[in-house]
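--- STAGE predict ---
source: upstream dedup step, 1 unique chain passed
mode: sequence only
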Amino acid sequence: MKLILAEKPSVAKNIADALKIKTKKDGYFEGNDHIITWAFGHLVELYDAKDYDSKMKSWKMDNFPFIPSEFKYKVKSSPRNRAQSDAGAAKQLKTIQTLMKRNDVEAIISACDYDREGQLIGDSIIYRGGSKPQAEVYRLLLNEWTQSEVLNGLERMKPNTAMKPLRDAGISRQWADWVIGINLTSVATLKYQKGKGKALNIGRVLLPTLKIIYDRDQEIENFKPEDYFKLKAIFQTENNKEYEGIYIEGKEEKFKKREILDQIQDRIQNRQAEIIDKQVEKKKEFPPFLFNLSNLQGYITNKFRGWTSDKVLKVAQSLYEKKYITYPRTSSMALEESLVGKTANVLKTHTEDLPYKDEIKFIKSKRVFNNAKVESHSAIIPTYVKPKRLSADETIVYTAIKNRFIMQFMPIAEYEETKLTTKVDDDDLDGVFISKGKVQLTEGWKKVEKIQSKDTLLPLVEVKNRVSLIDAEVTSNVTKPPKHHTERTLLRVMETCGKSYKEDDSEKLMGSILTGFSIGTPATRAETIKKLKDVGYIKTESKNLLCTDFGKRLVETFPVQDLFDLEFTGRLEKALSDIQKGKASKLEFLKLVFHFTNQSVETIKNGDAIIINEVSSTRVTNEVLGTCPACGGKVTDGYKGFGCSNWKKGCKFIIWKNDKFLATMRKKPTKTLVKDLLKNKKAYVKGLTSKNGKKFNAYLSYEKNSESDYYSWKMDFSK
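--- STAGE serialize ---
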């Protein structure tokens, strides 16, 4: 019997389906040869500081720096009450440990996601408490959860011992973030915050990302617009066709002084001119590369209103777990060369009904299949499983991935670019007029998403043709400041660690990604952006990301400048990447992180005492608002929520004051709302805001989930 551990219940179900196992028991599936169980992501977590030493329960400056001599793990905490273990996690952990000890289990297979976080999740459960299981441990390394991939993957497993570098990288990341986060968040809050409330958040990835947005805001704020001028002329051919030209002298077409162009404009009135050069060039337009996660997030958040990179990741993860796409948390924009045959079949599956299917041709090109451009996981593509039903959000993400995939095998788009040089009859005039035209010749891959190319037509003329200058105008222009960052542009900077590149400079881009020199990983960047918003360091206006006053004060005051430095953060991420590849030592990395933390704590302690954040205390009335629908106790107004007074006896009823569901509609729960819910089981709420920014009213109820003790919101528009 082989025991398979999946990262989530949905993945366990996919494996069970592939092995045709129908029998489901409490916490696992069981068939003739396999038992399949699951985690819920992380089932264990690192100790809190107070778990190591009771003196850490109270935050005192003298207690820091605090770095444990040995890192320990416990069952993950309940999201409702961090002082208690999560009951569901504890139960599932016990189930897995019981299954591992069964006498008929001869092999344990970790089938968690093939990345450093997935490795950490599996190993932290399998080797819980430092004990070695009695059965051999293997690793299932898959890029998708389709039946054929699961069955093939079970034939080519690796011993889990071969994954030690991946586990070392996962542990290094986890311990480093714990040490930096716990120490610097604590001492920064003690030093720079007045009043009790949420702590200042200090993190290895959080602060450099904030600095990127801050720097762009400063560029815009300090930008000084400059006037410049252009001379535009209209020429007419002998057969009365017109075209436009811009005056260029040397390589300069933008002039600081208007007088120069005004004089030229006067001199050339009603002059004749001659076309002295014509260049016609056919140019190829290749389709954009296959999606990696950051590019997918950038594409969707830029194209569709109301989307965040965090939402794109959640939807992509859902599609992956439903077997419709390959692994989404990838940094690669190419496919492994071993996938050629499989990819051809996937292409055939998705293109047999398309009106332009005759133009689609499967080719093994280096642009698509390139081992040198793949790290751990290939680019995101659809699987051979065609979805029967998708939600509106899933349709948006899935269609983008499928279209980008099909584009790779369509004809290359081609256009013709024409450049005319026109010289006015004036020997003393140094400059010429340049005109550019563009005509799409082959639509090619642009058909897939009906991308319209705008043609700029020039009349059919040849060199030495005479033309008349019929009008000329000097235009006033102003230099524009750089644009605010959006999630798309921010993700790009994080991915390349601030190395600027042009849209078509893909080799350099892919090179920097594959060396691991970045801020965060594809899996964590969306979470970082979301956290910056949640803690109040940045805000969104339309698609733009802007620093709040709070965020600005932090950047301008916090003395540990290395944490804002893209190069410093990039080097840490590069070190983690090297540990994962077996090129660097976990111990050396942690030694560096611990030394940095100790120094940083001293820097903060010895720095100027400036208030970055002042927290106004939330008034707690303890007013009784009604009767608890779960146990009949009293629901009171508490510090963080409206909760049942019997919570110490285990009652789970609470409405959090920062409720995330209501926050999506720009609302917070009020005492009036809670009273209505408790009295009438529903409340009429006005002024809710949709994703599109439109106001609406609805009835809200707060109902117990059938599968757990927790409550969820329900919305109704009828009386």
